[in-house]
Structure prediction request, 246 residues.
Amino acid sequence: MSTAPFKRVAVRQPSPEELEAIRRDSLTLEAATPEEILAWAVEKYFPKLTMATAFGPEGCLILSMIAKIEPRIYVFNLDTGYQFRETLELRDRIAEKYGLEVDLQRPELSVAQFEAANSGPIYERDPDRCCFQRRVVVLRRVLKDFDVWMSAIRRDQNSNRADTPIVGWDKKFGLLKISPLANWTKKDVWSRITSEGIPYNPLHDRGYLSVGCRPCTVAVMAGEDERAGRWSGTAKTECGLHVQDD
Ligand code: SF4
Prediction:
């Protein structure tokens, strides 16, 4: 049983030609709709294409598109063991509405084993290590079977995400990453959710603008930053999945 944090793993490096082709694809898709981007990705990469979702509004929106365009895409959630009950119930609501079963991918150790190995929970005293072991390690395990992964991040979510390309090379995990909603706004997302009746996490109606794990998420005040409720009171703003190591 290893609890060693932040272990670096050698990942595939693309050639300069591949990087140039990726850059061109991304530029071409700048004016495409998310559905067109998704259809392009399916045509080019399915079945070596997957999607991770934390069941945020953007993820639920992409799942609704996947259900129409290619429901056989493997979709999964990083189930840290610390998620809200409402989040896990949303998984069931999506399965019921769209017939899409989002797989729950769990760390090797249960929460009880993990906390026993660390003399208690570490989300307060070392959230980076907790996220690394409960999320990043699991994501790496899943992604090794795919060439491309999709995320639901948007450029306007925070400064870390402002330069997100539609298609880019993920240096951290060593594969292609597609973000069909990169140039959508929060308003675009919610207007589609409302008009199509797409299921979303009821915690959003209770002041939780961005929902992560229960111990690290709080409701925010009107006007606060979209991700202010995540790791509130600390400098941490990302769980490490969408941050590129240099
Ligand atoms: S969000 Fe909190 S509980 Fe969840 S993995 Fe990260 S530190 Fe641990």
